[in-house]
Amino acid sequence: NVWVCGTGGAAVRNAQTGTWQRHRLTNNGNMDSFINDLTVGADGTVYASSNGAPGIGGMAKFDGTRWTNFNQEHHGLGIDWPFPTDNSEAVLLRKNGNVVVNPMFNGVHEYSNGNWQTLNNSADVVGMVEDSLDRLWVLGEYFNLKVQNGNTWTDVGITAWGNRIQVDPSRAGTVWAATGHEVKRTDGAT
To answer: Are 132 and 167 in contact (CB under 8 A)?
Structure first.
């Protein structure tokens, strides 16, 4: 199956039937029509960044049947969103099953088994990946590319506003990062 997202919500194309199903505020339990990013697990679980409403929340999970929203006004039907922001920009489902999200202007946080852990204070994140060495990479808006190794974050120089980050499938621990002025292939050291 193929998932896409953007203004208007998210949609999935069924590989067997070739049909598309839209997921948006007007036809299901997803709380938003403006989805900046989504991530799909091996079991088909989808996590999507979203914009709940001013001061409400900013992430959603789809288990294949229903949406569960991460927000402050879930009345026992969702998951607490403890951040003072109403949306998130980037989301990543890690190989270990934990979810990493960037609540807008509130750093990078990892969610696991009902608990949140702060990973760093990068204010703006436009993309995240986990490389073949299980290291987390974040690409930000302003000259901001970082890699996490254990509890340590290393700044990797990059020029201009971050645009996209992708794992390099041919070289261990390496990513490609793109900005408006540069495309960089790096393992964090070279």
So the answer is: yes
User: Closest by alpha carbon to 163, among 129, 126, 137, 189?
Assistant: 126
C-alpha–C-alpha distance, residues 164 and 180, integer Å: 10
Both structure tokens of 47: 């996590």
* Distance between CA atoms of residues 94 and 90, nearest Å: 13
Contact (Cβ atoms closer than 8 angstroms) between residue 101 and residue 112:
no
In this predicted model, what pLDDT tens digit does every residue of 14-24 receive, in sequence order? 999 999 998 87
How does 147-167 read in b/e, with b if 16+ C-beta sit within 10 Å?
bbeeeebeebebeebbbebee
- Residue given tokens 């091996």 in the structure block: 42
> Given the DSSP bridges, would you call strands 162-167 and 88-93 parallel, antiparallel or unpaired?
unpaired
Per-residue pLDDT tens over the stretch 113-150: 999 999 988 778 889 999 999 999 999 988 899 999 88
